[in-house]
């Protein structure tokens, strides 16, 4: 596997990302998905989610190529059913053990003890669930016909995650910038495109300043500065991703986010919500087209690698947690 060149120097051939999704196509897709989800009593929701993701990916382009999403509705459905089965099984086992212990040490003590054990196990399982969700999503994502992958080690990631959360808790949140940068850097450096790795070079001290400034200014401006806060967080990460001999850049501004938000509210108001598909695409276009890469990617040097597919069951368990973390990390 090829490593990212750490001796990067600025190039003069920046390549912009673009988003080409059309509101007319998207609203048809959303209505179709809604109709089929209703008449199938919710079962089609898994196919709807896949088709929506595929639409957004296929309309995200770079150097004339588009991304693609290869998950299927059936694997998402089966993964969901398995995830529900696991949760039910855990609940039954927890109940049985609590009942047995209750007959020995008393119901009140047994409930407290099993509650502690349950949340401790859940806490330890969170990083494994997040890692599994990452492995699934990247293995189902491609660009120019070549798949992404996540190669992180469960033991390494679990130790890093538990250490980061533990120190953040002990320091009453002060360690959060170091936790976020450490976890995001680990995820980035263990993500590959074909046979090439990514890199992320950020400093927690800079993130701490952005967070403190953003929280303070958002408070004193009654939330108005939150748009600049979000832009600064986005740019903090997207100005520091490296691949091959280049790096990503973002020119997103708080003013652009504020204007987009005002347009979104206005369109939704005057259309009684009908403009929602156009609003979704408009917001995505602003984010995608703020991004660029400092030089052309050398596709000739990129070769596909054997895929470690990941589990749709774990993705269903960890998808929301992964989305929440992703909203923080750029």
Characterise the protein shown here.
By secondary structure, this protein is of the alpha+beta class. It has a domain at 71-252 and 290-328. It is 62% helix and 12% strand. It is built from eleven helices and ten strands. A ten-stranded antiparallel barrel has the order 1-2-3-4-5-6-7-8-9-10, surrounded by five helices. Helix 1 (23-39) packs across helix 10 (276-288) and helix 2 crosses helix 3 (73-105). It starts with 14 loop residues before the first strand and ends with a helix.
Could you give a quick summary of the protein structure above?
The chain is an alpha+beta fold.
What's the β-strand tally? 10
Which class best fits the helix and strand makeup?
alpha+beta
Mean pLDDT: 89
Count helical runs.
Answer: 11
Q: Which key terms come to mind for this protein?
A:
330 residues, alpha+beta, ten-stranded antiparallel β-barrel, 11 helices, 62% helix, 12% strand, globular, disordered C terminus
List the helices and strands and how they pair.
Layout: E1 15-19, H1 23-39, H2 45-58, E2 60-62, E3 65-69, H3 73-105, H4 107-139, E4 141-143, E5 146-150, H5 154-170, H6 176-189, E6 191-193, E7 196-200, H7 204-220, H8 226-238, E8 241-243, E9 246-250, H9 254-270, H10 276-288, E10 291-293, H11 312-328
Antiparallel strand pairs: 1-2, 1-10, 2-3, 3-4, 4-5, 5-6, 6-7, 7-8, 8-9, 9-10
Helix pairs in contact: 1-2, 1-10, 2-3, 3-4, 3-11, 4-5, 4-11, 5-6, 6-7, 7-8, 8-9, 9-10
């Amino acid at each position: 596997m090829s490593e990212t060149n750490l001796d990067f120097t600025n190039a003069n051939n920046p390549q912009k990302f673009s988003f080409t999704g059309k509101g007319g196509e998207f609203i048809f897709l959303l209505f179709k998905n809604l109709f089929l989800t209703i008449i199938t009593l919710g079962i089609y929701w898994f196919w709807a989610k896949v088709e929506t993701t595929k639409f957004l990916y296929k309309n995200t382009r770079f150097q004339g190529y588009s991304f693609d999403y290869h998950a299927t509705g059936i694997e998402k459905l089966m993964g969901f059913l398995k995830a529900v089965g696991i949760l039910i099984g855990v609940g039954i086992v927890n109940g049985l053990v609590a009942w047995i212990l209750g007959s020995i040490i008393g119901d009140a003590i047994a409930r407290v003890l099993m509650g502690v054990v349950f949340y401790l196990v859940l806490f330890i399982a969170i990083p494994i669930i997040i890692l599994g969700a990452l492995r699934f999503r990247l293995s189902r994502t491609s660009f120019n016909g070549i798949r992404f992958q996540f190669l992180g080690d469960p033991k390494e990631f679990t130790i890093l995650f538990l250490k980061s959360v533990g120190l953040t808790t002990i320091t009453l949140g002060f360690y959060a910038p170091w936790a976020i940068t450490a976890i995001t850097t680990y995820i980035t450096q263990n993500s590959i495109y074909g046979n090439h790795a990514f890199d992320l070079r950020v400093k927690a001290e800079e993130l701490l300043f952005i967070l403190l400034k953003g929280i303070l200014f958002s408070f004193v401006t009654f939330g108005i500065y939150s748009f600049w806060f979000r832009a600064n967080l986005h740019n903090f990460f997207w100005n520091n991703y490296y691949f091959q001999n280049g790096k990503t850049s973002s020119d997103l501004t708080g003013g652009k986010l504020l204007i987009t938000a005002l347009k979104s509210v206005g369109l939704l108001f005057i259309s009684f919500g009908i403009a929602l598909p156009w609003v979704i695409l408009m917001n995505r276009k602003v984010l995608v087209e703020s991004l660029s890469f400092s030089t052309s990617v050398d596709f000739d040097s990129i070769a596909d690698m054997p895929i470690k597919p990941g589990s749709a069951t774990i993705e269903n368990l960890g998808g929301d947690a992964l989305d929440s973390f992703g909203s923080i990390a750029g």
